[in-house]
Amino acid sequence: MPIYVQSLGIGVIGWSLLATSAALGMFLFEWVWGAMSDRVDRRFLILFSTLAMSVLFPLYTLQFLIPYFLVLQFFSGAIAVVLGPTTRAYVSDESSQKSAGLLASLWWAFFTVGRTIGPLVGAYLAELCSFSCSFYASSVLALILACLVMLTFPKLEKSVNPQEVRSLRSTLHMRSAGFLFLSTVFAFMTVSLVRYFLPLYASEEIKMSTVEVGVLLSATAAAQLAAMPLVGWLSDKFGRRRMVGIGFTSSSVILLFYLVTKTPSQLLLVSVIVSLGLSATTLLLALIPEVTPNTLCGTAVGAYGSFEDLGIIIGPLVFGFVWSTFSPVLIFAVGSLAQLISAIFVLTIKPHRTEG
Q1: pLDDT tens digits, one per residue of 22-46
Q2: Is the pTM of this model over 0.70?
Q3: Which of 1.20.1250.20, 3.30.420.40, 1.10.3720.10, 3.40.190.10 would CATH assign to domain 2-153+164-348?
């Protein structure tokens, strides 16, 4: 998407607004979908999301809709975000306290498989055919996913009573839960930096081609994919907060290396190392059972997801402002600071349940 909108003549500020619009849709609706997933069959929520996205993807190819991309981005974010709380709630349903870190990391790992393959395939389709082919291919994949969900996902129906809802609301005001959610906001500001601005930086400042940018994004996703199961397993053995603190602090330092990166190979190396540190972001999900009630799994995950989305809303606005007002390279210094703040908040958490 960053390279596509750039090809349409939309600048960095325009892309920042588009990314923020999608994140706003995610932020406003993720907790809604999470709460609904505790009340209805989650498969139908996922089916709704995948079918709707299969319709939305081709709309990005229509030239007369370019002025309405902000609206498309909002609806795309609001609808695609269904997959977050519903699938993660499935994972949490199957998790024990001793395996929560590993299973949360595996969820992210399989999510990252798509992020590893997607940019590379999408870039080649855009290079060989057109950007439109990438959107059409995404539409087909969404339809395939809809079929897989209905054929393979178990039926899980839950009900919620008012007493449990009040319990969740009181938990959200607990100090440790507050620190976790604040950490999530700053962590996902950094995620938005890598997700939305690294492709632009690689293209405009390092002069990498569309395919090279696709390879860069796939390599960073592959690095996270390799690290996630190991990080999850280690967190179950030695403590999740400790592993998050180590990962976030190290990635905060490595982000500063972007300030002296000049060549495509250097950018690739730094990005891969940063991604290894950012793999600890997966453990924030595993910390939820330590600061929230056992009940209302989908609602709690949805609330947590809204704080993820808040970070992705704030991030593009901050990084777009720094890019256009000061210097593109300074976005990585700001990202480094955000990651360090996130690490501090995580290490301040005192969970009311013992880590696995």
Answers
A1: 888 888 887 777 777 767 777 888 8
A2: no
A3: 1.20.1250.20
